[in-house]
Amino acid sequence: METHDHQVRSPGAQVDRVLEQVVAVTYRCLLRELASGFAHELNQPLAAIAAYAEGAATLLRRDPTQVTKAVVPQLTVMRSYRKCCRSSNHSPSTITSGSL
Description:
The chain is mostly helical. Helices cover 79% and strands 0% of the residues.
C-alpha cells in the first residue's frame, strides 16, 4: 500500500511546515519592500538632480545671464545660513529674510 507524505506526518509536523512557509513568505515580502524603499530613496534625489540640470540647461540656452540672476541670490542666502549656523552664539533669536 502506497502512503503519501502528508498522510504520514503528524499534525505537529504539518503545523511546523506551514509556519516555516509563512516565515519564508514573510521574509521575501519584507526583502521586496526594503528593496523598493531603497530604490525610491535613490531614484527620488536623482530625478530631482536631473530635473534641475534640465532646467539649468534650458535657462542657459535661452539666456545665460538668467542663470546668474537665479543662482547668485540663492548662493548669498545659503552662505548667510551657513554663517549663522556656524556662529558661536547659539541663543534663540528671530531671523528675518531681510536680515540675511
